[in-house]
Specification:
Chain lengths: 244, 244, 244, 244, 244, 244
Amino acid sequence: MHLARESWTDADAADTTLAVLPVGSTEQHGPHDPLGTDVLTAEAVAEAGADRYTDPVVVAPAIPVGIAEEHRRFSGTLWTSESTFRDYVRDVVGSLAAHGWDRVVVVNGHGGNIAALKEVTARIVRHDDAYAVPFTWFDEVGEHTSDMGHAGPLETSMLRNTDPETVHDDRLEAAAADGADGWGEWQGRVNLAVDSDEFTDNGVVGDPRESSADLGEELLDRSSEALCDLFDAVRDRDPTSRTD
Amino acid sequence: MHLARESWTDADAADTTLAVLPVGSTEQHGPHDPLGTDVLTAEAVAEAGADRYTDPVVVAPAIPVGIAEEHRRFSGTLWTSESTFRDYVRDVVGSLAAHGWDRVVVVNGHGGNIAALKEVTARIVRHDDAYAVPFTWFDEVGEHTSDMGHAGPLETSMLRNTDPETVHDDRLEAAAADGADGWGEWQGRVNLAVDSDEFTDNGVVGDPRESSADLGEELLDRSSEALCDLFDAVRDRDPTSRTD
Amino acid sequence: MHLARESWTDADAADTTLAVLPVGSTEQHGPHDPLGTDVLTAEAVAEAGADRYTDPVVVAPAIPVGIAEEHRRFSGTLWTSESTFRDYVRDVVGSLAAHGWDRVVVVNGHGGNIAALKEVTARIVRHDDAYAVPFTWFDEVGEHTSDMGHAGPLETSMLRNTDPETVHDDRLEAAAADGADGWGEWQGRVNLAVDSDEFTDNGVVGDPRESSADLGEELLDRSSEALCDLFDAVRDRDPTSRTD
Amino acid sequence: MHLARESWTDADAADTTLAVLPVGSTEQHGPHDPLGTDVLTAEAVAEAGADRYTDPVVVAPAIPVGIAEEHRRFSGTLWTSESTFRDYVRDVVGSLAAHGWDRVVVVNGHGGNIAALKEVTARIVRHDDAYAVPFTWFDEVGEHTSDMGHAGPLETSMLRNTDPETVHDDRLEAAAADGADGWGEWQGRVNLAVDSDEFTDNGVVGDPRESSADLGEELLDRSSEALCDLFDAVRDRDPTSRTD
Amino acid sequence: MHLARESWTDADAADTTLAVLPVGSTEQHGPHDPLGTDVLTAEAVAEAGADRYTDPVVVAPAIPVGIAEEHRRFSGTLWTSESTFRDYVRDVVGSLAAHGWDRVVVVNGHGGNIAALKEVTARIVRHDDAYAVPFTWFDEVGEHTSDMGHAGPLETSMLRNTDPETVHDDRLEAAAADGADGWGEWQGRVNLAVDSDEFTDNGVVGDPRESSADLGEELLDRSSEALCDLFDAVRDRDPTSRTD
Amino acid sequence: MHLARESWTDADAADTTLAVLPVGSTEQHGPHDPLGTDVLTAEAVAEAGADRYTDPVVVAPAIPVGIAEEHRRFSGTLWTSESTFRDYVRDVVGSLAAHGWDRVVVVNGHGGNIAALKEVTARIVRHDDAYAVPFTWFDEVGEHTSDMGHAGPLETSMLRNTDPETVHDDRLEAAAADGADGWGEWQGRVNLAVDSDEFTDNGVVGDPRESSADLGEELLDRSSEALCDLFDAVRDRDPTSRTD
């Protein structure tokens, strides 16, 4: 049930309370991965999860621009303020819920969105007429999660599996050479940097040479399976906490 | 230069000040056209215009949800508040401009967005560091414009040309039969209705049986040509009015 | 029932649900018409409509400053932001409705207010406890509407009928000579200008020499009659759409 | 220089930095005084002051609705939220200043506006490009100030001088009989009441029988003289505090 | 019941609807009094009132920064915007009320907060589920109130009684010598100054040499007694005005 | 340099650019720890760090109420909305910076504040005239960090060292018995709960019986040492990223 491609009458016939809202970012992903990486991967996971789930799940169109001001000095990065992003997500979830799809999983492909999604979904649960939770796919791939980086092995693998034409294989060496080993400039547990160009020259963190289409297939499989488990939980959740 | 599918380094190499931002809506389009009609058509026109233009034009990802509360009682319609939508567009245009693409045409596929886009682009021109104008494709197809309706001949034709699999040809008769002849419930020049279900049972205005793929091709051709003419004007515009 | 000139006890005795709220603008109207043109005309129409209507209609005081930033470079033009204007109108309508006058016609004399009034009245109908519609007088004068312009024959005629001392008859020649033929600088259907001084030197659009007090009387008659027809429709409207 | 009745060209020729912005309220003033009392009196004082001043003073149109929710249970009272009112005043003052009239006296006729005007004018002085101060006329009439009340001798006298047809002389006895002696319900220096109907049955505080047209003339004379003294001070003020 | 120092279980056992929220400011108080004067005194009065009251009263932690931009040019002065302050107070009162402590006295130690507290508490009473009133201690000390000034005899006395180590006795002479006699620069009843450094060199208004610990004890006694009288009134108040 | 207890003249003499702003929460901490735990510990760390640092550090008063709606069903928990909290912090940091103390460490004692502080300090660095970073003390105590919980061994130890009278030693057994082992109700990496009472009956997570005053002393020592290291880094940081 990919909402954007169905008529309203078919959408109306969907017998479900479950919806997924893919959320990404349009932002630099090194010289080798496309600016749309976080949208493409979020959409892929959302669709794979909805496809493999036993019951119907409404798939909303992906929100393409998120919280990415930290990459502002890399060309092509787009962003909104945090509050604009939260408002946009809240309004969209509210309109999904207005049609009875009031169990909403926000499938996220961008680390920079995580805190804002946690804030806005909690606000929705407490104060609106919906139950919503965020799901960030690269947190749900088991031991691979620790290899995330930025435009590193995980994201590059996902794209090589689903959108291989968007990856410049011939730039992986350069991407790795000029990238950073870790995210941020740290003093203890405090990151002194607010923008990514303070610690990475080409925007890369991690080694994308470790990517492969096979790994991408595995990542998609694991994350979409985890998403299905979450669908079960969300569908059955008694949101007794929703008391306002 | 489809931003979402390019790397930031390739985006950085684009020698242009021009960008297009497609803006649509996810909302009912009768029993025969998809909920994503306004996004699909806006994207098609934006891409066709950018492709045929002599100079490079940056194509931003489409904003999929707009101002559509008027269709709220038709399943699958998504919407944000007007102010959320304006904020989202303003932020995205601002980030485009931050990279030097500060001549932005917002290519719109939805009538409900027009007033908000006029307001926000004027605000951008007067108070931000960018020059932006809205362009609504179905206003730029000559004598056909008067046939617009909603999910009527123009939109259905566009889809039959670019995304034919999303149109239910077998529902055109029913679509026409239960649709309305005009938009709104009028007392003089005042529309007494605020929601579309007050005057159309299935969401249709106009007769989609008059659509064809050929007409769609013509509409795409004419609107993208008009868009190229606008690129010329926007590129050369001396925004002397930008004085704040 | 001119609210500002009645006591609350007399207002309380009014047996009606109908109210009109005149809304104008204080902005340049050429060298010949006063800056208050849009308020004076909106008030005149609102009062004439209320006077000729069979049932009592509460007339609220006119809101004198609206959305007129486009005229900012002409001395004396006053404006608020669009959101401030919408908030002000919404609050005033809300307080009218609190007294039982919850069928409100916003009588408008300024083109720049139209979109904002459409947005805010729809919001009121959908989310507040009132039914409100905008009514722009120069859209309700039949074939004359196409002669509107700015400080042109229609507005000048209205003033020559109701407030002749505010019109400088001896400047009509100069007003016409230095005015523009049309509103905006157009590329296709897109207006490239955001401020009126980009296309008119003295602020005039149209030929005010075609004005007359007789025409003004006719315009007032036609628009106030249309307003009365709207009162009927608004009074009897079943706002079933008001479901939030 | 009554802005609303002048052309922009004449306004442009005004050689001054001084402007007055009358601000009132539309709210209950007992059974005898009109709902528009606070606007009528503010306008009268602003105009009298501008007329008697040696140099030209731009008179802006009066803002008719202010902060009056405390009278919400008396029919005909209109109000906006405090923040809407502040925004409206700030925007209007900003547009006056844009034309070079950046010394603005906000002439106020309503006690409920005082705190909001102090806040917003200080914000304007500190953060915008203008110097603005509030002036509440009934605070500037010497020993009479202590007789203010609400719809009491001062306001009623002012109206009997400038707008006598709006006062119901035959209701003064009843107005006095059912009014309250003082404003509020006090515990120490704390007013326990938030709405005026908690302490006055007909909305009156003070004895309007003590009013007269002669007293009104004196009040207008004294307050407009005080306003002229303020014009001197505001014109000559070195706003060194304006450092942001 | 000092909330910050009690466990939630003990707070839960409190059998009361009454709470006090101390509100101060961190701002210059001359060379002799500490920047925290307004918080220290507000806390002292709140605690003394709660201690002497017959029934339990919940004491919330003090809000330390308020509306003090007027002192911005004196080092160490902290401030928030008026709207931020109001939002903060409203949210905190709302959370107190959520636990059943919905009769809230906001005990204030700073003149600059008074108008904002009046606005926000009225809003709470009218629109939220709580009854709240502001109480400014130096307005409740009888004939002493007229000696208030700024960092003058009253505040200095309070501190010499409760926090003597924060007062520099050896600077009282200098404080008095360089202070101002009154607050503001007046033209009639209008204060032309928006910042305190426009009329006082060291921030002092009034003569702190007239202070004493004995006077401080008396002030604390009188204000806390007045606060207890207010607790009675607030506890018993029938907030029939709360109708929204 | 505890700002609240110093005069403005002494604050003015401080030769430093460094300031700390303690930020806590007033919220349930089980039956044994006080509601003010997060403020008390944040203040203790901030003061200890400032005291041990070689150069002067301005200590601002602690912000006592933060983001704690998740504990709303436990009596005494106070909270503001996330946006109110961010606004409050931003305004206070802005006023610190106005005095030249534009290197600000926000010392935080509450997990629920972390995301909001990251957002607001990044906004300050990018758009305001200050450099600010958040520092959460329990993230800076080495291997102990993993024992954090809520009202568990770390917080209880801190209080037993600095404010032992606020800890109910006789309730530690009950606190541990009815507490939860972990925070949240998890499906994969998604927490299905938005409020803490969904997974803990008495508000406790972790075993406070493992606390001791000695451990508290060590925690204070380690965290204040880490804070001093951060002071060095913040003082010397070239905020080249601050380009807006």
